[in-house]
Write a structure and sequence with these properties.
This is Ribonuclease R. It contains 14 helices and 30 strands. The protein has 617 residues and is an alpha+beta fold. The termini are far apart.
């Protein structure tokens, strides 16, 4: 109601209903609105705004002019909450940081609030704002509840913060993904295509994935004699019809969520782990790129794309293929030996193409941390996963398919773009690298500057850390209907084609390639799935940070080795016993970024995920 009412006032539309007229009369009485003839105006002393919560502050979004938004600390909200419409009175005290004071709150409807109990009060889980309400019922400190924002009645008792199993609900709730907990759609998926598909079941396709994988998006086969790479991708678009209920739900989710020890799939498991998964020794529908190579010039001569039926002859883990590439074949069957021989030859080919690719793109010495949880959902261990030969083999094959797919769409498509970083970010990067004692200078281009920095870093012990700084200096990759190239990979054209089981972008691209048509709402699709991608990343980090906090709470007074990640705010990250654990240092004295120090954990708040430690001087 309030949004429509304030839009009417701004647009001089005086057709108010009875409820709206009551609000207008109240605003006139309080001199918040003025009226001249038939025109209403907002008194310049006041601002009508919508409250929007950011990470560390609230934003008063001016409904008439977005350039007049005001930041407000959480403790100055006067009872307002995220999504409320408010009247704020301007404050012009030049010595005060406060620019507005909330004097009236409009709340169009009751909301659910996720809160915890402490000292007989409710605090919001996301921002730790104390609600203006004293708890009458008997709750334990640390109890997590969903309450009604109007009367603070309990809607659902989630559990106690001491129970690690509440973490999943908290993260899904905070990032608006509770839909993941709903029962999966019942589907009747059959391989009943009446159109003739290319039969590739005679080819020795194999899948290479993490050992725990259940959703196998892609399979590969290399024909050495003809110099053809076949990249077979699960034909998800055959089973997920556009605008069906299943499709709308997949769009809403936009990708699978990979939590430690658990996957919350974009598609029902009947599809993601069965009918669309390229499982070993089972015939499956695939959308196949047949890529003809010019190995002499390290280029792609041509490619064909068609619907096919394949049968993956073997599924392998990255570890198994790494051993094969090192010449350690373990035990094997005759068929496996044939596949291994082919994979080794394919690796040599992709390694050469990779070397040429990196003349324009970049190779970062980054690694991924995999959190392992026990049966009680507590953090048990951390595995560091580095990019190995098997990862690079698969990656190059997928890059071939993604590049070729991007070339086959119309001028308006669905591209994965990564724009060149701004000059300001690169100059800051140079300053940061110099502060580490590595002498670097700006070069004539951004590409040359990054290569120069990486070459200098090779001769230091900080190459991994400097790669991290380079990554932070880059813009964020996203989806776009316009082809703006991919700076990081060095490609003039790039799309996501190879993971339709877990990414909605790839599913849309498959449909476009099959129909040669672009959805009318392609810009909306690109914007939405880009936002979803960032949100899901934040959701996973929130979940993981709470697991780290639980671990740290059991290790108060224990010693850890950390490195400084923020030289202004005194933030650090562990690198030995529990790599990736983030800490706030309470006696920080301005050490240089990436300085390594020993710390003692002092206190932990599982709800806020804050781990406080002191440096041992």
């Amino acid at each position: 109601m309030y949004k429509q009412l304030f839009e009417k006032i701004i647009n001089s539309n005086n057709t108010f209903n009875k409820e709206e007229q009551k609000v207008v009369d109240k605003l006139l009485k309080d001199s918040i609105l003025t009226k001249q003839e038939d025109k209403f105006e907002i008194n310049s002393k006041f601002k009508i705004a919508k409250v929007k919560f950011e990470k560390n502050y609230a934003l008063l979004e001016d409904i008439s002019n977005e350039h007049k938004n005001i930041k407000l600390e959480f403790d100055l909200l006067n009872g307002a909450y995220d999504g409320d419409f408010v009247v704020a009175k301007r404050i012009f005290n030049p010595r005060s940081k406060i620019k507005a004071k909330i004097v009236h709150i409009f709340s169009s409807k009751a909301k659910e609030l996720l809160v915890y109990v402490e000292d007989n009060s409710f605090f919001t889980v996301k921002e730790s704002i104390e609600l203006d309400f004293k708890v009458n019922k008997k709750y334990q400190d640390g109890q997590i509840l969903l309450v009604n924002s109007k009367d603070f009645e309990t809607i659902k008792d989630i559990g106690h913060i001491d129970d690690p199993k509440v973490d999943e609900f908290i993260s899904l709730y905070l990032y608006h993904e509770l839909i993941r907990l709903e029962p999966e759609l019942e589907i009747d998926a059959k391989m009943d295509d009446t159109n003739k598909r290319v039969d590739l079941t005679h080819l020795n396709f194999c899948t290479i994935d993490p050992a725990s994988a259940k959703d196998h998006d892609d399979a590969i086969y290399y024909d050495e004699k003809k110099q053809i790479i076949y990249v077979a991708i699960a034909d998800v678009s055959y089973f997920v019809k556009e605008n069906s209920q299943l499709d709308k739900l997949a769009y809403m989710k936009s990708s699978s969520i990979y939590l430690p020890s658990k996957v919350l799939p974009m598609l029902p498991r009947k599809l993601s782990e069965d009918m669309c998964s390229l499982r070993e020794n089972e015939k499956r529908y695939a959308y196949v790129f047949e890529i003809h190579l010019d190995i002499k010039n390290l280029e792609i001569k041509s490619s064909k794309l068609y619907e096919a039926i394949i049968e993956s002859k073997r599924k392998f883990s990255y570890g198994r293929i790494d051993r094969v590439l090192e010449g350690k074949l373990d035990k094997y069957t005759t068929l496996e030996k044939q596949i291994f021989d082919s994979v080794v030859k394919l690796y040599d080919v992709t390694k050469a193409y990779r070397a040429k690719r990196l003349e324009k793109g970049y190779e970062f010495r980054s690694s991924e941390l995999r959190l392992k949880l026990n049966h009680n959902s507590e953090l048990e261990s951390i595995e560091e996963e580095n990019s190995t030969a098997s990862h690079q083999l698969v990656e190059e094959c997928m890059l071939f398919a993604n590049i070729e797919a991007s070339k086959k769409v119309n001028s308006v498509g669905i591209y994965r773009i990564h724009e060149e970083p701004p000059f300001k970010a690169i100059t800051k990067l140079v300053d940061e690298v110099n502060s580490l004692g590595v002498n670097v200078k700006l070069q004539s281009t951004i590409h040359e500057t990054i290569n120069h920095i990486q070459n200098k870093a090779k001769h230091t012990t900080l190459s991994k850390e400097i790669d991290e700084l380079i990554i932070h200096a880059q813009t964020q990759a996203k989806y776009s209907s316009k082809n703006l190239g991919h700076f990081g990979l060095g490609f003039s054209s790039y799309s996501h084609f190879t993971s339709p089981i877990r990414r909605y972008s790839d599913l849309v691209l498959h449909r476009m390639l099959k129909s040669n048509q672009t959805p009318d709402n392609i810009d909306d699709i690109c914007d939405y799935i880009s936002i979803q991608e960032r949100k899901i990343d934040q959701l996973v980090w929130d979940f993981e940070d709470r697991k780290y906090a639980r671990f740290a709470k059991k290790h108060i007074k224990d010693e850890f080795r950390v490195y400084i990640t923020d030289s202004e705010r005194g933030l650090a990250r562990a690198y030995d016993k529990m790599p990736g654990m983030k800490l706030v240092l309470d006696n920080y004295k301005g050490q240089v970024i990436y300085s390594k120090v020993k710390v003692i954990i002092k206190s932990v708040n599982i709800i806020t995920k804050q781990i406080v430690a002191s440096i041992k001087y």
